[in-house]
Amino acid sequence: MEYISTRGQVAPIGFIDAILMGLADDGGLLVPQHIPQLSADMLKSWQRLSYQELALEIFTLFVNDEIPCADLKRLVDDSYATFRDEDVTPVRRINNGLHVLELFHGPTFAFKDVALQFLGNLYQYVSGKTNSIIHILGATSGDTGASAIEGVRGKAGIRICILHPHGKVSKVQELQMTTVDDANVLNLAVDGTFDDCQRIIKELFADVDFKHRYHLRAINSINIARILAQTVYYFYAYFQLANKGQADKVNFSVPTGNFGDIFAGYLALKMGLPINKLILATNENNILERFVREGVYEPGEFRGTYSPSMDIQVASNFERYLYYLYGEDSAAVTRLMGQFKADGRIAIPADKLAAVQADFAAYGVQNEECLDAISDYHAKYDYLLDPHTACGVAATDKLADDGEVTIALSTAHPAKFDEAIRLRGIAQTYPPQIEALFDKPQHQTVVGGTNDDIKDQLVKFF
Ligand SMILES: Cc1ncc(COP(=O)(O)O)c(C=O)c1O
Ligand SMILES: N[C@@H](CCOP(=O)(O)O)C(=O)O
C-alpha cells in the first residue's frame, strides 16, 4: 500500500513516510492509493476476533510489510493494554434500536486514545528504527491534546507542543493537558478559537521549509494513522451486534467536528462493511449538517456550545471526503479547495449531493436539545451521556427510521464535561484519575493568535 495526496502533487510514499509527513507537502491530505476491498468471507472470518486481533488484521492491510508482523502486534498490544475495559471499545445496549459504542475507556477518557495510544507508540518505534526526530505540533479543542500528550509524555526523542483555545475547553480537559509536568510537553493557550489553532498549525505544516527544519510531525486527524486506527472500532462494533444476530440495517451515529471520526466510518463503508447510513451529528456549529442537507460548505458564525470539542467550523478531513466524492480526482479537489480559500464557500451540484445523501443523513443539535437528551436518557435508561455523545443520540432520535438499529459512538466520558451535565441537576462522581488532577499545578503559556507568536515559541522549544 502506498499513500498519495488529495491534491495529486506528492509521489506515492510508504506507510512510515506518510505518518511522518502528516499534512501532505502539497497542502493536501494523504489517502491510501487503493482502498482494500473486503469480501463477505473475510468479514465473517474476523467476526469473533478480539479488538487487538482485529486491529492487527486491519493495520496489516495498510502497513504492508513495512513493520514486521511481530513488531506491529507488540505495538497494538501495548497500545490497548492501557484501556480499562477488556473489550477496549465495548458496545452497550440501550434499547432495541440503540446501542452505544463506548470509546472512552482509554487513559484520557475520550475516543482519541484509541488512535493516539497507537500513534504515540508508533512514533517511538519509528524514531528508534529510522533515527527520525519527532517534534509533534498539534491543535486541540480539548480531547486530542490531552490524549496526544498522554501518548508521548516522557518518551525519549519526542517533544510535543499543543495549541488549545484559551478558556474554551472544559476544566477537566484543561487540567488533563496542563498538569502534565514532563519536560517534553509544551501547552500553548491561544487567544482565539480552535479554528484559529488548526489554521495556524496547518499553515506552519504547509511551510515545508519550516516543517522540515524543525521536524514537525502531526497527531491531529490530518495524520492518516489516526483515521486508520479509528476505522477498527466500526468493524468491531458491527461484529458485536452481528454475533448476536442484530446487525441488519445498522446505522452509525457520529458526533462530528473535524469530520475525522465519521470519515473513518466512511472508509469502513468503502472497504465493504455493510453500513445502512452514517448519521452525522453536529452541535450549533453546523457547517457539516448544512453541507449534507443542502450541498453548500460554508462556515457560519462561531458558537460556544455544551459540546466544546465540536465547536469547529472548518472540518479538516472534509477534503478527504471530497476526494472520494469526486471520484479520486485530485484536480477537482485542488480546484474546490482553491475556491474555498478564495470565496469561503463550496457548492456541489445536484448529482454530487445525491451521492452524499446516499451515505449520510445529518442533524444539527441545538444546545437545549443536547441537554434534553442527557436528562431523558438518564431518567429513562439510567445512562449518562456526555454532551458530544448526546448530540449523536439526539440526531439518532430524529433520523433513524423504524426497524433500523443504530450504534451511537460515545466519544467521551461524561466526567469530562461536568459543567454541562450539572445544568440539568445531575451529579456524578469523578473517576479517581480525574479527581486527582484538581490538586496538581498547571503549566501553560498564554500566547497571541498569530503564526509568528507560535513560531517564536516553537523555535525556543524544539
Ligand atoms: C468528545 C468528542 N466528540 C466528538 C468529536 C468530533 O470528532 P471529529 O472531529 O473527528 O469529527 C470530538 C473532537 O474531535 C470530541 O473530542
Ligand atoms: N475535537 C478535537 C479537534 C481536533 O480534531 P482531530 O481529530 O483532528 O485531532 C479535539 O478534541 O481536539
UniProtKB/TrEMBL annotation:
Its EC number is 4.2.3.1. PROSITE patterns: DEHYDRATASE_SER_THR (PS00165). The modification N6-(pyridoxal phosphate)lysine is found at residue 112. Signal peptide: none annotated. CDD domains: Thr-synth_2 (cd01560). It catalyses: O-phospho-L-homoserine + H2O = L-threonine + phosphate. Its cofactor is pyridoxal 5'-phosphate. One of its GO terms (molecular function) is pyridoxal phosphate binding. One of its GO terms (biological process) is threonine biosynthetic process. Residues 98-405 form the Tryptophan synthase beta chain-like PALP domain. Keywords: Amino-acid biosynthesis, Lyase, Pyridoxal phosphate, Threonine biosynthesis. Pfam families: PALP (PF00291), Thr_synth_N (PF14821). Residues 2-80 form the Threonine synthase N-terminal domain. Pathway: Amino-acid biosynthesis; L-threonine biosynthesis; L-threonine from L-aspartate: step 5/5. Belongs to the threonine synthase family. Catalyzes the gamma-elimination of phosphate from L-phosphohomoserine and the beta-addition of water to produce L-threonine. This is Threonine synthase. It comes from Cohnella nanjingensis.
